[in-house]
Amino acid sequence: MRMTARTLLLSCLLLFSTCKVNDRLTVPFTEGLIGEKAMVVCAHPEASQVGADILRAGGNAWDAAVAVQFALAVVYQVAGNIGGGGFAVYREAGGQSGALDFREKAPLGSDKDMYLDDEGNPTGRLSLEGHLAVGVPGSVDGMVKLHEKFGSLPWKNLVQPSVDLARKGFALTEQAVSGMNGRQDLFAEVNTHDIVFVKEGDWEAGQVLIQDDLARTFERIRDDGRAGFYAGETAELFLAEMKSSNGIITQADLDAYQSAWRDPLVADYRGHKIISMPPPSSGGVALIQLLKAIESYPVGDWGYGSSRTIQLMTELEKRVYADRATYLGDPDHYQVPTKMLTSSVYLKDRMANVDLKHSTPSQEIKEGSVEIVESVETTHFSIVDEEGNAVSVTTTLNSGYGSKVMVKGAGFFLNNEMDDFSIKAGVPNQFGLVGAAANAIVPEKRMLSSMTPTLVEKEGKLHMVVGTPGGSTIITSVFQTILNVIDHDMTMQQAVNAKRVHHQWLPDLILHEEGAISGQVEESLRKMGHDLQNRGAIGRVDAILVRDDGRLEGAADGRGDDKAVGF
Ligand code: DON
After folding, report:
1. Residue 301 belongs to domain spanning
2. Number of domains in the chain
3. What's the rounded Cα separation, in Å, for the pair 375 and 377?
4. Do both 201 and 222 map to the same domain?
5. What's the helix, strand, coil split of the chain in %, to 5?
6. Ligand 1 centroid to 135 CA: how many Å?
7. Are residues 205 and 232 in the same domain?
8. What does the alpha-carbon distance between residue 163 and residue 216 come to, in Å, rounded to a whole number?
9. Residue whose CA is closest, atom 1 of ligand 1?
10. How do 510-513 and 501-502 pair as beta strands?
11. What is the DSSP letter of 545?
12. Which residues contact 376 (CB under 8 A, 6 or more apart)?
């Protein structure tokens, strides 16, 4: 075939554009569940159904949030909880937003050196496993406060589904079974009494799990509200469990626990309004730092998965996580410079030395060295009701099944949230995160979190409800999901499905899911000086998008058993 000047030019253009396309990944078109009116997306189908039933019965988004939080504590015990804590960010249909902090607190008897030996070195896994790892739980108080302020259905109606699920049982999923089987030895080691999760031989998918002790605990919560957990029989069982080993939580801790209403952090991003969780979570601060810092770059043109986009996100993330380690902690105990950290002037200066062609080694940004250990679990759920109220909740026991301690006779697991404190300056926690004075242990202080329940507004209307588990990767997963929708024009489901990457300053490593980085992009990132490491799933985002036609797109993350139920 003769090649004319025109066909030559066309072939060159084609070659050039193919190169560009090859340098980035595309995400197959998919849509989540479309609903006309209301939607619940959470980690377990049974709990999503409970939430949707509450909404159908005329309950509002807060009613559904309470019912889902409790249902997850029955059907998704690995992270759903009453023995842990969390954060809720909400937006009323009229536009008013707010946040509730029901994060656990350090016990009154805690001490900044409680996990160190006489030489000042960390001792074993005391902040991670067993009774000393437990922070004072906040979830039940949080649900009571949400209901007192916003609830429309009777409290009992919101708790009863959990009594029923615990008493009648529910079928275990493949994922649940593999998590339970993998922890049989640890459960048996940490608990001196028999727990329903430990049995002869392996659990099998489809088997029904009945939890009678937990059903009775939920009956007390149903009948007595806050007192059904922090006083009476549940408290007695809780305190007896503490005394049976080296636990330090007392009745005074349970009496003193109060969740706290906080003003959410609000910022603009490309004409959208971001509403997220303030300290003691680092999530909102870090998310806003990342979004504001990336706003001046045309990442939409560069494309999802391109080397330039990944390089820029990585460099910004290193600096943001370095700030987190030094400045972030519980604002009730430490002066957190939130305004400064999220101000455009500060961020311009902070990000001025980002080099788009070369990796800045983390050691040059700040010192430290870490390693990441255990597999972990938290859970997030997103809800929108018929009125247009939205609630975004992330809640956790920290590790999968928390401290692995199940309260004898009460059937619920206790958190190991104490590990989220900086137990010694510069010593990494289970997520490889380091910290210092801002996040040191002080009685009644809340440990720093990465949980990032977030809402996004567009043109003054609700646009997105988003959040995820994933420890330190929570912030970067929420960041990428928002970019995927706003900058990369994805549907909510595509944004959730899209493979994720993560950098947290230390270790100096780009972690990525299989398929998140093409061969060509990997090569160029390595040339820039990055180390890359493939790891399992990053995040498990459950999100809702309010589309331009007003309909809701519920996107459940296929990395888990998560499910959207709406109508
Ligand atoms: O609050 C935090 O940041 C951690 N305790 C969250 C733990 C978590 O996300 C585990 N999940 N996969």
Report:
1. 263-374+451-566
2. 2
3. 7
4. yes
5. 40, 15, 45
6. 14
7. yes
8. 7
9. 449
10. antiparallel
11. E
12. 398, 399, 400, 430, 431, 469, 470, 471
Ligand 1, atom 5: closest residue by C-alpha:
398
Let me know whether 128 and 222 are in one domain: yes
Name the amino acid, one letter, at 311: Q
Which of the residues 309, 342, 378, 379 is marked catalytic?
378
Say whether both 416 and 360 belong to one domain.
no
Cα of 29 vs centre of ligand 1, distance in Å, is 30
Residue 2 confidence (pLDDT) above 90: no
Can you give the pLDDT at residue 376? Answer: 58
Query: Which amino acid type is present at position 279?
Result: P
> 379: CA distance to ligand 1 center in Å?
8
CATH of the domain at 528: 3.60.20.40
Residue ranges of E strands in 426-542: 454-458, 461-466, 501-502, 510-513, 532-535
Confirm whether 33 is domain-assigned.
no
- Give the model confidence (pLDDT) of 336-345 as tens digits: 999 999 999 9
Angle between helices 61-75 and 139-150 (to 10 degrees): 160
The answer to whether 378 is a known catalytic residue is yes
Pocket of ligand 1 from Cβ distances under 6 Å: 376-378, 396, 398, 417, 420, 449-451, 469-471, 474
Report the candidate in 184, 175, 270 with the shortest Cα–Cα distance to residue 540. Answer: 175
399 CA from centroid of ligand 1 (Å): 7
The answer to whether residue 127 is domain-embedded is yes
pLDDT at 10 over 80: no
Distance 268 CA to ligand 1 centre (A): 26
Task: State yes or no: pLDDT of 16 exceeds 80.
Answer: no
Mutate to test the pocket of ligand 1, among 376, 394, 401, 447 (most ligand atoms within 8 A of CB): 376
> Cα–Cα distance between 317 and 310 in angstroms, integer?
10
Pocket test for ligand 1, best of 378, 422, 447 (most atoms within 8 A of CB): 378
3-class DSSP string for 7-20? HHHHHHHHHHHHHH
Q: What kind and span of H or E run contains 485?
A: helix 473-486
Which atom of ligand 1 is found nearest the CA of 419? 5
- Is the same domain home to 150 and 187? yes
pLDDT-derived band at 22 (thresholds 50, 70, 90) equals: low
Task: From 396, 420, 502, give the residue whose CB has the most ligand 1 atoms within 8 Å, as the site to mutate.
Answer: 396
Q: Which atom of ligand 1 is nearest to the CA of 447?
A: 1
pLDDT at 32: 98
Average pLDDT over residues 277-298: 98
Q: How far is the CA of 153 from the centre of ligand 1 (A)?
A: 31
Give the containing element (helix H, strand E) for 213: helix 212-224
